Each structure stands twice: as structure tokens, then as C-alpha cells.
Amino acid sequence: MREFAFRVVYEAGADDLMDVFIDNPELSSRTVSCHVTPNTMWRVDRVEGPEAALAEYDEAVAQLSRCSSLRGMGGCEIDWTHEVLDSYPTGRVVYSRQSEGQGCRSIPYLVAHYLGDGLLLQAEQQGNEYLWRVLADDGAVMSDIYEELERNLREGLSLEFEHVEHSPNWADHWTTATSDLSDEQHEALALAVAYGYYEHPRRHTLQEIAGEADIPTSTLQYRLSSAEGHLARAFLERAGTPGGLRTPPEASR
Questions:
Q1: Do 191 and 157 reside in the same domain of the chain?
Q2: In this structure, is the dihedral angle defined by the CA atoms of residues 192, 196, 201 and 207, taken in order, positive or negative?
Q3: Position 72 in a domain
Q4: Going along the chain, which residue ranges are E strands?
Q5: What is the pLDDT averaged over residues 241-248?
Q6: Would you say residue 117 lies in a domain?
Q7: Please, which pLDDT band fits residue 178 given cuts at 50, 70 and 90?
């Protein structure tokens, strides 16, 4: 199997939904599952970020009438529905379903159309980038897909090709997708470890660490808690937690 990767880069103002990610760099979205037929594409995405950014995301999704991943790259109206499967202060799990039609085809449809059955896709949105990874047979050729995408890029979008990996560690892309940390989250964890935040007793508080690093305490706290949440969920998912991951019921008052 081979892994192909490419990214669509958006200028501010080119797409309403991507503008939310551009305006909120700590907001991110990753596919949990993605499926496509000649008529329909449906997927589940995990979206995570600060509460204010998620509120902007919720509003943008509720008003969505064009999709950022279509041929024409969002320039076509679509028959699109969605449902929030899970909601918590720093994240959402969102199911969406959209029509496939002549002149408007999703990236998963185009990939399946040219490469056939047996492939897997993963998508990530953060900042101004929409990254796609494709796992396909060794003999797969992406040139036709790249050419069609380039022909249909609208103003404000550009396409970048990443790499072709002949022996991809694809299992890690999927089983640890929620533990992929941003540079800011890595930095927060590194600072916490370096300053003894996880030692017993703690050598420094978050306020002290934030002061040393010249970062607002609230920002450091958010980045650290987000990183810890990513790692905890990935650990439980990898370990096969009985019953899966569930949102705990609200505490009774």
C-alpha cells in the first residue's frame, strides 16, 4: 500500500467555514470515518478547540450551504445535513451527509472514481489548510485526481502536494489521530515537564510557568488541558476501553 497526501490552502475570505479555522488557529477537525457512493458522501468528524471557537464553528456549520471539499472547491450548492453526535466544552463529534451530483463532486468521490475500491481517506482542517491523506494500492496513480483538482480550484485556493510513502504507518494515523498535538500543545507539555508540574510535590504552578514563558495563564492552561485530553482519549481508544468512550452524565445537584 502507498500513502498519498495533499493539502488545499485557503486565503481568508475564500470559504466561510475555513474562515472560522483561520480566525481560530487552535481549532482543528479530523475525520473519524468517511464513506462515499456515486450519489452520497457521509462522514464523522471530531472537532476540537476553545469554547468560543467552537461556538463560531457551530454557527458556521448551521448555515453551511456549500462544502469546502467539493470539486469546484466549495463553489457549488449542495444538499447537506448534519447532526452533532456528541458535544463537550472543548469538542464536538459531527455526522454529516451530502449529495453527490454532476458538476459537484467531493474529494472522496473523485479519489474513489479514479482509484476504485479498497482505499481509505483521512482529512484534517486547521488554520488555512485542509489536508487529505489517501491510502491506496501500490499501483495507484494520483495524477488524474491532482489534475482535476487543479482545474477546479477557485480563486483564493491553492493545492500543495505532500509526499508518497510506500510503507506508511497508517494504523498510527487512525488510532492516534486524536493524540496528534499542535506545536503549541507540544510546547505546553514540554514546559510543564521541564518545570516539574507533574512531579509530586509540584515544583511550579501553572501561573509560575506561564510567567516564565511569557504566556497568559489561561492560554497555557487551555493548551495543556487540550493536550492531556488528546493523549487520554488516544490511550483509551488504543487500549480498547470496554463500552467505548462516553460523555459522563451531568452530576446531580
A1: no
A2: negative
A3: yes
A4: 2-10, 28-36, 40-48, 80-88, 91-99, 120-126, 129-136, 157-165
A5: 47
A6: yes
A7: very low
Strands (E) in 49-195, as ranges, are 80-88, 91-99, 120-126, 129-136, 157-165
Q: What share of the chain is helix, strand, coil (3-state, %, to 5)?
A: 35, 30, 35
Distance set, CA 214 to CA 167, 209, 218 (Å): 42, 8, 12
Domain boundary among 117, 152, 169: 169
pLDDT tens-digit map of 130-170: 999 998 888 888 899 889 888 888 888 899 987 777 766 66
pTM exceeds 0.70, yes or no: no
Which CA distances in Å does 87 have to 48, 51, 53, 67? Answer: 10, 11, 14, 22
- Does residue 244 sit within a domain? no
* Closest C-alpha to 29, from 168, 125, 151: 125
Instruction: Dump pLDDT digits (tens) for 7-28.
Output: 999 999 988 899 999 999 889 9
Supply the range of the domain harboring residue 210. 178-239
Query: Which residue(s) pair with 122 in the sheet?
Result: 133
